[in-house]
Amino acid sequence: MMKPRSDAQHICYRSCILRQPYNALHDTDLTRNLQHEIAQGREGSGISSSMARRAIRQIEEPVVSMRVLIVEDSEELADLLAKGLQAAGYEIDLLASVSDASSVLGTTRYAALILDLGLPDGDGLSILRELRHRKDPIPILVLTARGGVEDRVNGLRSGADDYLVKPFAFDELVARLEALLRRPGQMLGSTLRLSNVTFDTDGRQAFVDMKPQNLSAREIAVLELLLRRKGSVVSKKLLEDQIFGLTGDVASNAVEVYVHRLRKQLLDIGAKVKITTIRGVGYVMMESD
Ligand code: CA
Could you say which DSSP state residue 275 is in? Predict the structure, then answer.
């Protein structure tokens, strides 16, 4: 039986069960091994059957909802935020450094970013400036202990949409996040359209000829991304990140499976769009003839 190789890994190993996808990013091999162990139903791993069932459910059926990235190095606060926001229906990814945040934000799209400023390897403001420099419209809520007027002004001028000073009430954070997500922007609050297909990004509802359609959460995630980039190739990796988050435990053909299902659904409901496979690269959505 695979055993965690150190105490630190054991903690991560347990947290993969309890807080997956939260934390799973840090050791994807461990997550895979964990899945294997759960699947094998082995004894002695310290995993109760209810925890195992919950973990399997989370791994197999993550709810594709509003995905929010939290960058916060205080483990206690991060944990609190992640749990609270998950309970409020958000899907949460959690990172604790400027370098991790920069690389992940370069490849993954989030509905919003909750950003701490005092991070172990630098200032969160640098992430903010980098995002705004490349015209990324992601709503950003800055969370910090720096409460001085100058700090707030500096944060807002660097491109933050809102600013919350620690300590804060969790309800206020949720209310502010909701307010940010309601704002119209390039990425949010809009209707995406191609031929007779429309998608309401607020209600997360797809329509064909104005009639609401019943698609699964993952089919909707694929449809949304392809519609946002209509006419352009969307890489398989990007779709994978969008559908499955950062959990790293994705079957190699998972994207093909969901694209195939979506294609069939679109055909069945009379959508005049097609998804073309660009072999080895990704997919592109276009109007069909
Ligand atoms: Ca901090």
Answer: E
